[in-house]
TrEMBL record, chain A:
This is Ribosome biogenesis protein BOP1 homolog. Its main location: nucleus. Residues 203-468 form the BOP1 N-terminal domain. The lineage of its organism: Eukaryota, Metazoa, Ecdysozoa, Arthropoda, Hexapoda. It comes from the Eukaryota. WD repeats lie at residues 475-516. It comes from Chironomus riparius. Belongs to the WD repeat BOP1/ERB1 family.
From TrEMBL, chain B:
Belongs to the pescadillo family. SUPFAM superfamilies: BRCT domain. The keyword Nucleus applies. Residues 600-611 have a biased composition (Basic and acidic residues). Required for maturation of ribosomal RNAs and formation of the large ribosomal subunit. This is Pescadillo homolog. CDD domains: BRCT_pescadillo_like. One of its GO terms (molecular function) is RNA binding. InterPro entries: BRCT_dom, BRCT_dom_sf, PES. Residues 319-412 form the BRCT domain.
Length: 818, 621
């Protein structure tokens, strides 16, 4: 590139050699003119090469011509690549070289050979040019050095080393070298002053400003003062276009052209005035199809051949379509649509057959929704519609909708077309969905029983007769609560003891009070001696236990005999225990009045006596002193007038004691337990656990295997002594404390009396068969007593032979039920 | 060393796991877990001992059985759910990047849930599936009316519609419909499918309404529908094949036209039109009903009462199935067509409607062979003499009753008799209230009466039919009373003739009657004494010598009742302690029911009285 440029400058130098003083700018503008066209850089090179090669022989016209062609080529080059262009240029080159040198050679050489040569040359040329460029660079560097230490000889000699392939002569050599430098450094630099690129103020103190090419000093122009410049300004019409050259210090007057250029630049226009920026646009490539081709070059052969790669690609697609790897759009849509439609098939082979498959463990099927009733109808019977009260109720339960009777308001519509959409429909469905997946499920037994089925199957009460059903007699006479009663073994009389300090002896059948005996103390318990040969009643009155001969019935025989027996006291041989002595004293000396009443023996206790009970044979009897601690229970022997305590230790407050009817056993009921003692062996046999809070009374079955316990906590418990220590059955028949309980001695019957004024008669059958448990059937509730204070019935008592029942209550009466 | 026993290492303590634990084990989000549970039919379990099952904790947790969770764990659905999760993420990413091509590609590759095996797992036998069809159908019928909303796609609703229509077609083809009930919620249909009763509800139009998010979560319902569509498809497939019908059924009317995708009304009308056309069968073989064959076999063996009853029931059923055979119905345009078309077709009737309004009508209004026109407006201008103009309730009531009811109560503009639920008969307790209308329906005499009146109707249609029904009722009542009297008289005569004194008679009524007779005899005797002749006196003396009639022992029923009540009370106390609670709750329940019944009865009485008053006033005026 560099030599090309140089050459151009040489030519310009020739043409414009007259005015050497002209500065760079016009040159530049010329250059701009040349390069103003759209030519590519490469084109430039070729152009210059051509000029360079054919500067001697070829005319300007020729070069212009070639230039035109090239310009076309350059357009093509954009499309067809730079190679094409190279070729063309080389062809041109070849023509020129042949015109230069091959004229001298022989003409019979073949064209092909020539072409070969051409190519060779061309390559050589290219290689050479490259080399040239490198060398030139080196040379320019050298020159720079030499300029700094100016030595012309070496400079020239260095220049002469240049190869002379171009047709430059030695004559031009000097000039060439002279401008070589200029081209190398900068286009604009005017080198008339050789000091180089140094700050000019270094020369401020000198007269000269530098040195010219010949080494002579360039003298500064005389300094003009303000006045001179002013004068000059006034006088010289060219003053405004006079400029000071900093290199030489000379004034330079700018030409019109210069000023024109400056103006153009100032207006931000192209410096060249002649440059037309609005040239008409020539559309070479338009959508219109020309009849003739714009360019004469025919299409390349390649453009007619199908692309191999494309063909391969297409082939691949076709193959994959064929194989079904790839789908067309239509096919894809079809597949998508098919995918969306579920496919159904015969999933179950038979209606009921089941395959072996994994399935939900212990599946609980969801219960079905309840089916609608009449109320849900769109046209229900009128009674199902809400009245105002129900409506209000429905609305009041807004916050607790689950409490509503119905979850909807029944509506009546005149006709089907009036029926609107049900507001809660979707919600109900949603809740059902929630139920299905969120509600815990379990298998539960559903009670399909009627309440009657739960009542145990018992024989009808009619089959269990006889039992007392109605009240037939009322015994009145006591003036206070009748606490206790006892039946004569024959069943003709009974005795009752009351809080009014008396005992009364009644005839059962007539209701007549035969005798009234004042005991001078609250009578807590009476007991008729079970031995029919003795007529004797044991009475627990306050701290005393009285043995009274009632003088009823067979007075001559039995009563007298009793008196006889009691009159002669046996001789006490044993020395009594101190412990017993302090507790009990027997005394047979009685007031005449008392004796007349029938009191025969008084046993004084150290504590209040709450109960007295006879052994079956009538010789032994026991008294209970609840506050007696370890001496609470005393067993007395009538024949020997002797007492004994069986226990050394107390087990709580003793409520009640009872002799076994057959065996020598004693039942002792404390507040919560019942202990059974063997009186012979002096040990505890069994401890019954009624699991209650306070035992009131106990009664024993005449056969001795079953025990009834009544408690203050409303219960009556049946113990089967053979079965267990826990109750065989607990009856909660009463509403309040059960104070009295009794077995019938002959009939399978028992009764219980309670503070709720009711006497309940139950059938209690005990079988001889050990495998069969007792049968208990509640038969009848008898409620005739009146309620006085909080108490109801204190004692129930069966007649010894008849199915009659006596009950004594807090209303001072005794009632008989038959 | 002996290994120490620790709590909750065996038994209920290890059988259950909480939902959170299940989520951790399955590595699923709650939504996915819920979906999986819905699809697989897994539900929480109620442990026997909640404290033990929760390892000592007392607050109530949702507990799943461990085996259930393992069952979920080993299903391939779980992987599909995970794939779906991943694919959702990838699609979201493609969307956020803006690569629509990639997004489309991924959407196309979206994993599909296959539920075939789940259906088989949940319903090992076909009958199991039918037993569980109630919820399925109800939900499908609901969804088939839905518009496309965010979580319910159009394809889902169309599928629901397709399946529901298919099922209805099966019911028509098998004549399986048994009961219909129009409630305020919708139409209840009960059909017998393979011996199982399937009940479903079709809501009144148009059921869709946007719901509050806190109230209804459509996504959960959509999950259910997803499973139910699959299940219903398989069930339909088998049902159709059992009737030798091709599945999917081919209709003359296209039910999935493009227009229906956009227009709701055509969507509906096409569905109804499809109901009205026959579906093609695969082959013309007449399949025999196996039930009949069985019965014949049984009848050969012996004529027990049971068999007779069965025969009767079978006959009634057969009659019911062909209830509308030979009848032609025309439905006016204001009448809800879908349930009526379905119902009438089920019982062998022919239906059509206005051609100009909806597609698929088979005959026109001016067809002379139409027997009934169903109208739901007070009056109609142009009436044909040859047909009955009835309100739609007639159809439903007739079906539930099993006979064609007289049409007079259901004429145009007439106030309708109450529409009773046909489901209330089953499992009814003794204490439950029965409205008098139902009592009348249950009475066998009345059914006969209805039939008679029906004949009469046919004879003179222009007669005053409104009063006829009432007259009939009155007649029947009169007839009954007469019968009663005659019976009573007969008894009296017998006793009087024989002059037998019964010390303890069986019923109070009879005693009273005999008593009266006795007294009257005595009185007569006293009056006549004055005019006694000697002969008469002799006769009297003779009579005196004869055995005298003693006093009748009167049983005081009230007392007796009281006594038995007391006894019962006492015996009730003998209920075993473990049953005591149950006993009392049962009693309470019964008391409540009787209270309800009494309340309704009182209400009814009041209403009737006021009505009577109003009528009397009118008559006076």
């Amino acid at each position: 590139m560099v030599p090309g440029k140089l050459k151009r400058k040489v030519i310009e130098e020739k043409s414009a050699s007259d005015d050497k003083e002209i500065e760079k700018k016009p040159e530049e503008s010329e250059e701009d003119e040349d390069y103003g066209s759209d030519e590519d850089l490469l084109v430039e090179i070729n152009n210059e090469e051509q000029e360079q090669d054919g500067s001697d022989d070829n005319s300007d016209a020729e070069s212009d011509n070639s230039d035109d062609i090239l310009s076309f080529e350059s357009f093509d080059s954009e499309q067809e690549g730079s190679e094409n262009l190279q070729e063309v240029s080389s062809e041109i080159d070849a023509e020129q070289t042949s015109s230069d040198e091959y004229e001298e050679q022989e003409e019979f050489i073949d064209k092909e050979k020539a072409k070969l040569e051409e190519q060779k040359r061309l390559t050589e040329l290219k290689a050479f040019r490259k080399k040239e460029r490198v060398e030139q660079k080196k040379a320019s560097e050298l020159i720079k050095e030499q300029l700094r230490q100016p030595n012309d000889e070496t400079l020239i000699s260095a220049k002469t080393d240049r190869p002379t392939t171009s047709n430059d002569t030695d004559e031009n050599g000097k000039k060439f070298i002279e401008y070589e430098d200029d081209g190398d450094t900068s286009d604009e630099e005017d080198i008339r002053n050789t000091v180089g690129n140094i700050p000019l103020h270094w020369y401020d103190d000198y007269k000269h400003i530098g040195y010219d090419w010949e080494g002579k000093k360039i003298i500064k122009p005389p300094v003009q003062d303000q006045l001179d410049t002013f004068l000059k300004k006034m006088e010289d019409p060219d003053f405004w276009r006079t400029v000071k050259d900093p290199q030489t210090g000379q004034d330079v007057v700018l030409t019109d052209e210069d000023i024109q250029i400056i103006k153009q630049i100032k207006n931000q226009k192209n410096p060249n005035v002649n440059f037309d920026s609005y040239e008409p646009w020539i559309e070479w490539f338009t959508s219109e199809v020309e009849k003739m081709p714009i360019r004469s070059i025919p299409d390349s052969k390649q453009s007619f051949l199908p692309s191999k790669t494309e063909r391969k690609q297409v082939g691949r697609i076709v193959h994959s379509l064929k194989m079904g790897w790839k789908k067309t759009k239509a096919e894809q849509d079809k597949i998508e649509a098919e995918k969306k439609i579920p496919k159904f098939f015969m999933l179950w082979d038979s209606d009921t057959g089941r395959d072996k498959m994994r399935r939900i463990h212990d599946h609980v099927t969801a219960p079905k929704r309840a089916l609608p009733g009449h109320a849900e109808s769109y046209n229900p019977p009128p009674e199902y519609l809400f009245n105002d009260k129900e409506k209000q109720e429905w609305e009041d339960l807004k916050d607790e909708p689950y409490k509503r009777k119905l979850h909807y308001v029944p509506q009546k519509y005149k006709s089907l077309r009036h029926v609107p959409y049900y507001q809660n429909y979707i919600r109900e469905r949603f809740i059902r969905c929630l139920d299905l997946y969120l509600c815990p499920r379990a298998k539960r037994m559903k009670a399909t029983v009627q309440p009657e089925d739960l009542i145990p199957k018992l024989p009808s009460s009619k089959d269990l007769q006889p039992f007392p059903t109605t009240q037939s007699m009322v015994y009145t006479g006591h003036t206070d609560i009748v606490r206790t009663m006892s039946m004569e073994p024959m069943g003709q009389y009974f005795v009752s003891g009351s809080d009014d300090h008396t005992i009364k002896i009644w005839e059962v059948a007539t209701g007549r009070c035969i005798k009234t005996i004042n005991t001078k103390g609250v009578v807590r318990s009476v007991a008729w001696c079970p031995n029919p040969k003795i007529s004797l009643i044991a009475v627990a009155s306050d701290k005393r236990c009285l043995l009274i001969n009632p003088h009823v019935g067979d007075i001559k025989l039995i009563a007298k005999k009793t008196d006889d027996i009691l009159s002669d006291a046996p001789v006490i041989e044993e020395i009594e225990n101190e412990r017993i002595k302090t507790a009990v004293q027997w005394s047979s000396e009685i007031d005449a009045n008392d004796y007349k009443d029938g009191v025969r023996i008084i046993i004084n206790h150290f504590q209040e006596v709450s109960q007295v009970t006879w052994h079956g044979k009538g010789d032994y009897f026991a008294t209970v002193m609840p506050n007696g601690l370890s001496r609470a229970v005393l067993v007395h022997q009538l024949s020997k007038r002797r007492s004994q305590t069986s226990f050394s230790k107390s087990h709580g407050m003793v409520q009640c004691v009872l002799f076994h009817p057959i065996k020598p056993c004693l039942f002792v009921a404390s507040q919560q337990h019942i202990r059974i003692y063997d009186l012979v062996k002096q040990e505890m046999i069994k401890k019954l656990l009624p699991s209650c809070k306070w035992i009131a009374k106990i009664a024993i079955h005449p056969k001795g295997d079953n025990l009834l316990v009544s408690t203050y906590d409303k219960k009556v418990m049946w113990f089967d002594l053979d079965l267990s220590t826990k109750p065989y059955q607990t009856l909660k028949l009463h509403q309040s404390a059960v104070r009295g309980v009794a077995y019938h001695s002959r009939y399978p019957m028992f009764a219980s009396g309670s503070d709720d004024r009711g006497v309940i008669v139950c059938h209690g059958m005990v079988y001889n068969d050990l495998l069969q448990n007792a049968l208990i059937v509640p038969l009848k509730r008898l409620e005739f007593h009146e309620k006085v204070s909080d108490y109801g019935i204190f004692e129930v008592l069966f007649h010894s032979t008849q199915p009659w029942l006596l009950s004594s209550g807090s209303d001072y009466t005794i009632r008989l039920y038959t | 060393m002996v290994k120490r026993f620790k709590k909750y290492e065996a038994g209920e303590g290890v059988q259950f796991m909480s939902r959170l634990a299940a989520l951790h084990k399955l590595q699923l989000s709650l939504n996915d877990f819920r979906r999986l549970c819905i699809l697989k039919g897994i539900y929480p379990r109620e442990p026997k001992n909640r404290r033990k099952a929760q390892k000592g904790q007392t607050q109530i947790k949702i507990l799943y059985h461990k085996k259930d969770i393992n069952f979920l764990l080993h299903d391939k659905l779980i992987w599909t759910l995970r794939d779906i999760k991943i694919m959702n993420r990838r699609i979201k990413k493609a969307d956020s990047v803006g690569d629509m091509r990639l997004k489309r590609m991924r959407i196309n590759k979206y994993p599909q849930l296959r539920l075939d095996h789940v259906v088989k797992e949940r319903y090992p036998t076909f009958i199991d599936a039918i037993k569980d069809l109630d919820d399925c159908l109800t939900l499908l019928f609901l969804f088939s009316t839905f518009p496309a909303i965010k979580c319910v796609t159009r394809s889902q609703t169309t599928l629901c519609r397709r399946l529901s229509v298919e099922f209805m077609h099966y019911v028509i083809a098998s004549q399986g419909l048994r009961k219909v009930f129009v409630s305020i919620k919708g139409y209840y249909f009960q059909a017998e499918v393979k011996g199982q009763l399937v009940t479903w509800i079709v809501p009144h139009y148009y059921p869709y309404q946007p719901q509050a998010k806190s109230e209804v979560d459509f996504r959960i319902m959509a999950n259910f529908v997803e499973f139910y569509t699959t299940m219903c498809g398989f069930v339909n497939f088998r049902l159709y094949h059992s009737l030798n019908i091709a599945y999917p059924p081919q209709f003359n009317v296209s039910i999935d036209s493009e227009e229906s995708q956009t227009d709701e009304t055509t969507f509906v009308s096409e569905r109804i039109a499809a109901l009205n056309c026959e579906i093609k069968k695969t082959n013309d073989e007449q399949f025999e009903e196996p039930e009949e064959m069985d019965l014949q076999l049984i009848s050969n063996e012996g004529d027990s009462e049971k068999v007779k009853k069965m025969h009767e029931r079978e006959k009634a059923l057969k009659r019911k199935k062909n209830l509308f055979k030979g009848l032609k119905f025309f439905i006016n345009r204001e009448v809800p067509r879908e349930p009526l078309v379905f119902v009438i077709r089920c019982f062998g009737g022919k239906v059509s409607w206005d051609k100009s309004c909806f597609v698929g009508s088979t005959f026109d209004e001016d067809d002379e062979t139409i027997t009934h026109q169903i109208v739901d407006r007070p009056s109609i201008s142009k009436q044909y003499i040859s047909r009955d103009y009835i309100q739609p309730q007639w159809v439903f009531d007739s079906i539930n009753q099993g006979v064609l009811l007289p049409t007079n109560k259901y004429f145009l503009g007439v106030t309708l008799p109450p529409h009773l639920s046909p489901f209330s008969n089953a499992h009814r307790e003794i204490t439950e209230y029965v409205p008098p209308e139902e009592k009348a329906l249950r009475d066998p005499n009345l059914v006969v009466q209805h039939e008679i009146s029906d004949v009469e109707n046919e004879d003179d249609e222009d007669g005053s039919k409104q009063t006829e029904g009432e007259l009939n009722l009155a007649l029947v009542n009169a007839f009954r009373e007469e019968n009663k009297q005659i019976r009573a008289e007969n008894q009296v005569e017998e006793k009087g003739g024989k002059k037998i004194i019964e010390p303890e008679s069986e019923s109070d009524e009879e005693i009273d009657v005999t008593d009266m007779l006795e007294y009257s005899d005595d009185e007569n005797a006293e009056v006549e004494e004055k005019e006694l002749t000697k002969e008469q006196k002799r006769e009297l003396a003779k009579e005196k010598m004869a055995v005298k009639s003693g006093n009748v022992f009167k049983v005081d029923t009230k007392k007796e009742k009281k006594l038995t009540e007391q006894e019962l009370k006492l015996r009730a106390k003998m209920v075993k302690s473990r049953h005591k609670k149950l006993y009392h709750t049962l009693l309470e329940k019964r008391a409540k029911a009787t209270k309800e019944t009494k309340l309704l009865e009182n209400k009814r009485r009041q209403i009737d009285e006021t009505r009577k008053k109003v009528r009397a006033k009118k008559n006076n005026a």
